Amino acid sequence: MPACGAVIFTNNTCQLEARLSGQRALASVLIFALDDLIFGHNECWLDGRRATASVDALLAAGSLQVTSNRFQEAAGFPVLASGFTLGALNITSQNVSTYCLFATGTLQPAIDNNNLSLIPAQDCRRVAGDMKLNFTT
Question: What is the C-alpha to C-alpha distance for residues 53 and 101, in angstroms, rounded to an integer?
């Protein structure tokens, strides 16, 4: 039995350049951890045509901390959202994104605050409410 399943993914530059290749993906970055995931201080960049991916980053874990990242995508909606985070315990805070960044929790509402995006915050919150996400600001 492993003693720990924690994942630390920090200080990385992740790029998906798909404009010329026409690549398609669910996400540019996808991390699933059964234990804890710390995703911090990363630069994520996705350049592609409309609907290249659903999201730039898709992150799921038992407990999850997503802080101080830059999610940058090209104009023209190559993604539906900059990111989606899911955790039994989830803190998604102080990130900068081009499009909306969505967070939800299963055991407790996700803490989703102080995230900045080019899309107005009230629009992102309205869509998150329509999706029935479990979060608090």
Answer: 14
Show me where the domains of the chain are located: 7-132
Residue type, 40: G
How far is 44 from 97, CA to CA, in rounded Å? 9
Any idea which residue has 């190559």 for tokens?
78
Q: Are 74 and 46 in contact (CB under 8 A)?
A: yes
Structure tokens at 83: 């990111």
Q: List the end-to-end C-alpha distance of the chain, in Å, as a whole number.
A: 37
Structure tokens at 43: 């630069």
Q: Whole-model pTM?
A: 0.94
pLDDT digits (tens, 9 = 90+) for 20-76: 888 999 999 999 999 999 999 999 999 999 999 999 999 999 999 999 999 999 999
